[in-house]
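Students often ask what a holo structure prediction actually looks like on paper. The answer is less mysterious than it sounds. You provide the chain, you provide the ligand, and the output is a string of discrete structure tokens encoding the 3D arrangement of the protein together with NAP.
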Amino acid sequence: MHRIKANGANIPCIGLGTWTLSGGACRDLVANALDVGYRHIDTAASYGNEREVGAGIRASSVARNEIFVTTKVWYTDLHAGDFRRSAEASLERLGLDHVDLLLIHWPSRTIALAETIDALNAARENGLTRHIGVSNFPTSLLVEAIRLSRVPLAVNQVEYHPMLDQTKLLGACRAEGMAMVSYCPLQRGRALLDRQEVVAAARRYGKTPAQVVLRWHVQQDGVGAIPRTSRRERLAENLDIFDFALSDDEMNAISALRRANDRICDFHFAPEWDPV
Ligand SMILES: NC(=O)c1ccc[n+]([C@@H]2O[C@H](COP(=O)([O-])OP(=O)(O)OC[C@H]3O[C@@H](n4cnc5c(N)ncnc54)[C@H](OP(=O)(O)O)[C@@H]3O)[C@@H](O)[C@H]2O)c1
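The corresponding structure tokens follow.
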């Protein structure tokens, strides 16, 4: 498994996203994913599936210390006491004594970032997580979070796929030695997978459009991706991207789709995004 080195973290560059997975299906998919080679699982307190994710980890044949587990604290729990309780409750549900990465799921518009970054650091110092990071932080907030943190942040997890321009944010992450982990990496299987630039490359390499898009992610320095699938057969497909490489022309043609600037995850509590 290819990995990204990010301020002390060693992150498998493909992980399994678990948003919307639930119940026994979630447990079985997590276990299957680990058994076919995944070593990175992404969940969050708000996904309501941490118990099933933990059960899947235990049902797999893979040792805990080989798995990179990420969870997140929801944006309404960013005061220090709430933050600590949320992280501890996540560990209890997962059945783990620590996670590998703890993220602020979304920045808050009302809770001071300094208080939350202090709580995030305290979670690491108290052994709840090995590494810390943020999610959905645009560049200006990321710079502020980095300034406030006592240790380097490892990750900013953000929406990223070829139809969304994240050039500025990726540059900021790289400048700080951080990884940028792409969520919605397949644009949720929308029009992207039918784009001629993607389909043509897929034909050339005997790969699927989804594999081409995931390859496009991991071929960028410091970028990882956490595709989600509810289908067992696609677990292996989404991991089987390390035996081919896109040419510079193919990378550039797919990157040029960013002109669409088509963002999926935009909510009333979202921060002001980077201008493009
Ligand atoms: N930090 C945040 O705020 C945040 C926000 C959103 C998501 N996330 C994380 O990122 C993960 C991934 O994002 P996402 O689930 O929104 O979107 P995604 O991974 O881009 O897309 C998932 C969709 O793509 C389909 N798909 C998966 N593999 C495929 C393949 N090989 N070929 C064709 N279609 C395929 C899936 O359908 P099937 O199930 O039918 O395969 C599903 O409908 C989430 O699960 C979550 O862990 C984080």
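The mean pLDDT is 97.
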